[in-house]
């Protein structure tokens, strides 16, 4: 089966899930908590059920890793990563910055990535070796080559906030750039790097479904995604640095300098 066939199916699944999210956005939210501040809504669950059902129908032997636990483990070389609602906290507050993210990995390499914002109707897509697109138009990372003139982004995943190590990185990159944005959706942040809106994105503690599709978008758009150490990033790694490639070394140097002093602020 061709990569384009997988991509077309992922796009269809993302559109279906996106329609569900928009319908649920107009209803009273039913919210529960997976942790102290990590919440989940009925929209997450309905979106995931629709995506997983479609994937199982078309690819019953494929493994599926889904955020809300609706996936399946198999010995297939193909593994789907599904985030049915990336930006759940935003969604719960009716802040229109959230997305559906679907990625497909074959034998350890990402081959398909889709990130869909149903509010803006922006569909970001990528297939291995074929470039990255926004609503079927080619996209590329920006050509800005200095952090001082860059706009960058980050996030703070739910967890023990008093032990959040990222605050010192946030401080340092804020002082050295045009600014740091924190929109609350890693998938959309990565898509924004891919299309040149941001020059870089970094974050700690993300899960595989948060980044699988986005890193393919960045790479196919001419950027790069690594760990802060410079090693290639794989979904589920403990930290990510995705850039337009031109400021990657500069950001890594600064991150390396900050790391020994990255204890949380009092």
Strands, helices and their partners?
Layout: H1 3-25, E1 31-33, E2 39-41, H2 42-58, E3 63-66, E4 78-86, H3 88-92, E5 99-106, E6 109-117, E7 122-127, E8 132-134, E9 137-139, E10 151-154, H4 166-176, E11 179-181, H5 186-194, E12 200-204, H6 208-220, E13 224-226, E14 239-243, H7 248-258
Parallel strand pairs: 3-4, 10-11, 10-12
Antiparallel strand pairs: 1-2, 4-5, 5-6, 6-7, 7-8, 8-9, 12-14, 13-14
Helix pairs in contact: 1-2, 4-7, 5-6
Oligomer: single chain
Give the strand line-up of the largest sheet: 3-4-5-6-7-8-9
Number of helical elements: 7
CATH topology of the largest domain: Fructose-1,6-Bisphosphatase, Chain A, domain 1
Keywords:
single chain; 266 residues; alpha+beta; Fructose-1,6-Bisphosphatase, Chain A, domain 1; D-Maltodextrin-Binding Protein, domain 2; 2 domains; 7-stranded mixed sheet; 7 helices; 26% strand
Structure report:
It contains seven helices and 14 strands. It has 266 residues and is an alpha+beta fold. It folds into two domains: 3-139, Fructose-1,6-Bisphosphatase, Chain A, domain 1, CATH 3.30.540.10; 147-261, D-Maltodextrin-Binding Protein, domain 2, CATH 3.40.190. The strands form three sheets. A seven-stranded mixed beta sheet has the order 3-4-5-6-7-8-9, with helices on both faces.
